[in-house]
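User: Structure tokens for both sequences below?

Assistant:
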Amino acid sequence: MADATTFKAKATTRAWKQHTCEGCGGIFRYKMSRAVEAQGETEEDAAINAERESVRQVEEGTDIRPCPHCGALQPAMVAASRSTPFLVGLIVLVVLFGAIYLLGVGPAIVWFSYGSAAMAAGAVSAAAVIGYWCVAVRRPSNRPSAAAKLVADRQLEAVSEPNKASAGLGSNPTPQGTNLWMSVALFGALLTWSPLIAKVALGWASNADLKPDVAGPGDAIQLWLDQPIESLSGRHATYPHGTLTDRSGVTHPMKGIERAGNWGNSINVKSDDRNKEKDVSASLILPDEPALAGQTVTLDVDVGVTYPVMVGGGFDVRNTSATIKRQLTLSSPRSKRSYQITLGVSGFGAILVLLAGFVLLGKVTRLGTPLTNSTVVPIHEADDLPWKSRPPTGE
């Protein structure tokens, strides 16, 4: 069956867009043009679709043109000037939060700790709140000089004098509820700093080798081996044990948490299963001794690792061992759990910042919609002549 042929056509609609100013009540108009390309099953359909779309864009759209009397922008113009930067800013915000989350959660990226992620989220949230204010709340100033230039270029003209009785909501309005959602965004931004505030207030120490980076006596910790292994689909088992040496040189045993292998004598593999590189960690429980809080201690850990390796049509089980030596500064007993709660609060704050942004975007976009106090007036050939040369149009 042959593919259907699609035809394309272009159309341009030019007209005067006439407004009653919300600021002063004066009527003014400006030249507006929209050029579009559309498709259709026939050349005629394409031409009709293009013309219909260009007319729709002129009727429903607006250009950013200040009132020639008072220089004010109308609500729909304010929406048009704010919605695009707001949308772009939100896309950037989502990408940044996503990158921070992936870097923070990624177990092998030890240098980017949960604390670093919280600090980055706090900085991004603060920048977002400032951006929200600049776009959604700050009222653009009137532009009489810009209006005068457009009048001189015959792109803008006054139709009637100001009339306060016809003035509407006022120029450059702020959508209802904006202050509430700005407060939500600000509150969310403050919450993103919760982990850092807790660290300062409670004296918790950060450890770059841990994720989360705060731990105290009695907490379970996870340490990463310096070298990865290469095993069948990343399968492996670990058997750690170790000791902790405090600042007085006293050695304390640590309980290791084994990760058992579950492959037995056979492994069901898929067609795409291969040997792949895998970062390996060892989990242990710090001694539950409150006197260790606040001390910088040395951990000596031995880890046995067992893992299957695909060989031909089967697999071999291999064994290796590794030694981990780390220095940690311990916080208050079982502080890890409390720190994890602050991390959750920080994530909730980031969600609030994003939510407020999307709500504010919706409010900005709907500002002046449906388009009120505006009409479309056809452009006559005489409208392109100097003002004094135009014949009466009867408008």
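Moving on to the next sequence.
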Amino acid sequence: GFAGVWHLGETLADSSAYGNDGENGGTAPAAGVAGFGRQWHEGESNHVRVAHSASLAVAGDLTLSAWVKPWAFGGSLAQNLMAKAVNGAYRFRYGAAGTNPWLLLSDGVTNDGDTTPYGVVSAGYVFETGRWYQASVTWEQASGATRFYVNGAQVDVVKTLDEPGIQAATGDLYLGRDKANGGELLRGVMDEARIAACVRSAAWLWADYMTVAPNSAFTSYGPVLGPEPDRDLDGIPDDADPDDDNDGMSDEDEAVAGTDPLDPGSLFVVGATRSAADAFGLSFDSVTGRWYDILYNDDLRNTNGWRPLETNRPGTGGPIEVPDTLDATQRFYRVQVRTF
């Protein structure tokens, strides 16, 4: 059965019986395929770490799956979906160009005819950016049969990964990365990650896909019975609320700004600064993977009067200060945020 099930929404709790809860390493809530998922930010050491446990040390039959929405490909590094003990147990990823889903298994032995203590196998498939996919792989210990699935359907032919078993490595499990400071970083959003110590059938994986994917075959809705949930008590049902934490910034704007749409204390705020030379300026906390444009206007009655003070300022992950030499009796500012 399941060794771990992570819905990757508001929490990183494991919904299996084993309590393999995740620890956040910089990911942020984002719109998922089912509620919220988790977003990995460009250029940051983002990951979700799950501490080693006996239940995650799967020794034989294995099924790995996750929903992923890539937003960028390129470079020379593959993108990891999950990795247990780096190359010491099992690892699931796709290539740098979004191609060829790939499975690695390690028996820890190099004297059994292998030149390395692990084996790898991949399937022919090309992912695209901006689309949700459920990527899955199964491995049968007795035969080595390896099958890759995308959106509940097998892709490519059955492969053979001939390892006698998977060693019980004690390294941690990482989602969206191969290790804490590794380079093979996911560039996108992940949701519904699962590990099972068995070979799920093709019918199971199709049904698993259909229960999450938008469709009318498996999911239908009747009338709502009783009051609809309203977590922030603002009178707007949660499923229609554009501002879940009721902090004045919409969930969509917070996704762009890089703040937490579920934390009312996480906001994009611009403040004023004054230097020792009595020069005026602006200050705000920045997020990597974002561009910042600072504009000014000396007369708000002139809606076309916004002028650039500084544009294309890259986020650093820390505070940014922008000085301004005032040549007017009043001045208004606006900061626009864009993702890379």
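User: Anything stand out in the second?

Assistant: The longest helix spans residues 202-212.
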